[in-house]
Design goal:
This protein is 18% helix and 34% strand. The protein is α+β, with helices and mostly antiparallel strands. α4 packs antiparallel against α7 and α5 runs antiparallel to α6. Its main location: other.
């Protein structure tokens, strides 16, 4: 299984295609005007997102065969699952017509990824119909699959049947601290335990190509049990632009796996995670969006048991439009720890 970003207790607690066929293939003009409000980055001066220039920039080796490299590897030294998902979707999207866009993906992680080797992506053109195209992808290392992946693409088909849930009411990202700023705030506490300092410093040393602003950060020191619900604003670091919606979908697939499974562990602050990994992942794309602008990631876990946990997620544009939905089941093995405070 692919390594989770929250593979240790410290990491979990301290860091707590694409255009929808139903909405059209372009995200320009007034579609995302409200989504741009409050995003004050000078995009022309901002660096091109490393997710575009490196992580999702696959090398073509042969027809329907690609090679992907790594940018960020978790401290546990196993590949990040979101990277493999995103790269597999890039490979799949290269084999379909320009007039179809990903509406869903489903995948199983079957082996751990080796960060010392690149990943090969072999695409099978499973089906091309009049409205839908299906692609199957195997992510391969050491001659064996580490990910089994399928994606479906659809031609734009308008319909009068349209509805969605209501976006949660939360503070805007401009009023919140980033995960890195929260870590610095915790480190300024003179009573902070040495072990906690080490975990926070390790987190700050990582070069994660994602920016996060938690809405309801957990109490990382007093082990307070929380509902299995998590809310945070998220966007890719750097500039991507408006035009390539298939690319935004691939970036969102990468982002969707970050700090996701840890939602199932929020009610259990006195359990230390000895091992955690994602088993499968699914994603549905509903409306146009930009992955380099703030989106609210609403995560909740309806069930956990048998050393597994199920998590559902919704990615909201800041104008209240539901951009994508996600689901994942993961495995985690835990060990009880003391209930004393870390302060």
């Amino acid at each position: 299984p692919a390594e989770r970003s929250e593979g240790s207790e410290e990491g979990r607690r301290n860091s707590s295609a694409v255009s929808s066929p139903a909405q059209g293939a372009s995200v320009t003009g007034s579609d995302l005007e409200d989504n741009r409000k409050g995003d004050h980055r000078d995009e022309k001066r901002d660096l091109r997102s490393v997710l575009v220039t490196s992580v999702l920039n696959l090398e073509k080796l042969d027809s329907d065969l690609y090679r992907g490299e790594h940018h960020w590897v978790p401290r546990t030294q196993r590949l990040f699952g979101g990277q493999i998902i995103g790269q597999a979707l890039v490979a799949a999207a290269k084999s379909v017509n320009e007039n179809v866009f990903a509406h869903s993906l489903h995948c199983y992680f079957v082996r751990a990824g080796d960060p010392k080797l690149p990943v090969l992506y072999q695409v099978d053109r499973t089906r091309d119909g009049r409205s839908f195209s299906v692609r199957s992808v195997k992510a391969i290392q050491h001659g064996k699959p580490i990910l089994i992946f399928q994606a479906s693409f659809q031609m734009f088909q308008p319909s009068p049947v349209q509805h969605q849930f209501t976006m949660p009411a939360v503070p805007p990202p401009e009023e919140l601290l980033t995960a890195e700023e929260l870590a610095q705030k915790y480190l300024s506490d003179p009573n902070l335990a040495e072990r906690s300092k080490q975990g926070l410093n390790n987190f700050l040393a990582e070069e994660v190509p994602i920016e996060i602003k938690p809405v309801n950060p957990p109490d990382v020191f007093h082990r307070v049990a929380m509902e299995p619900k998590n809310l945070f604003w998220v966007r890719a670091r750097g500039y991507i632009g408006e035009d390539d919606m298939k690319l935004h979908c691939c970036v969102a697939a990468y982002v969707s796996d970050y700090s996701f499974l840890g939602t199932a562990l929020l009610p259990y602050p006195n359990q230390r995670v000895r091992f955690s990994a994602s088993l499968d992942h699914a994603m549905w794309f509903h409306n146009p969006f930009r992955a380099d602008q703030w989106m609210l990631y609403e995560c909740e876990s309806p069930w956990a048991g048998g050393s597994r946990g199920l998590v559902h997620g919704r990615l909201w544009r800041r104008d209240g439009v539901l951009a994508a939905s996600c689901a994942q089941e993961g495995v985690f093995r835990v060990k009880a720890v003391g209930t004393h405070s870390k302060l």
